[in-house]
């Protein structure tokens, strides 16, 4: 996680903006521009998504270390949406941002190898190596065990990472994740596996390339896992629209203000609606909400230092 941590230290901001657009989030003036040119088509929608994303990225790239596009929102637009995902990743990285692709991929063997190559690696095209999507990190589902993680570890370079689902933020996560294996919960066992998978890649900040997804909606478990998993960096969803607050995420962080990055998507992308705007200034309102979130989080954690 060295590259991500250095961006967090640089910006003094342990947050990530989820780029999860829907047409409802995009102001009418921007949508209409592309619908007039391409019609009410998937291509028109995809063009609007990309224009929206670019403006958000331009507004936050100097104050927020990372973005997290969720694949599902782009897959919903077919191949045009997937092209927009690839372009969004490339654009964010060109602006110096760390990109976490939220795909929650889960498979084994050659299939997982293909997912790893697509999102983190390079594919050989008749001997020429080229990246497909080229993100810095990928969210993955580790509940198939080591067979689903090893292909990723073999593909990642030293600047890349993965975030494994451990204790997710959704209401029914406890149906499985809170069950016991002996004296330990399922999520604790999965967390221990993250520590094991990452033990060969500890960076100077004390964290490995194998991170964990731990939700802000379960602050007690978040604090428990921080103590249990000293080398595992946390991606923390559930802040804001899902109900988590700054005090709920505080347990993710260590004594140096590091150890976690907190996600917000809807609250930032639709800040223009909350402010009662017509959306012309949506990027500026997103920036203001991102700064408000930053101040909220850093008010409850130790000062960020490297």
UniProtKB/TrEMBL annotation:
GO terms for biological process: 'de novo' pyrimidine nucleobase biosynthetic process; 'de novo' UMP biosynthetic process. The active site is at residue 104. Gene3D superfamilies: Aldolase class I. Pfam families: OMPdecase. The keyword Lyase applies. Its EC number is 4.1.1.23. It catalyses: orotidine 5'-phosphate + H(+) = UMP + CO2. The keyword Phosphoprotein does not apply. Belongs to the OMP decarboxylase family. Type 2 subfamily. HAMAP family: OMPdecase_type2. This is Orotidine 5'-phosphate decarboxylase. The gene is pyrF.
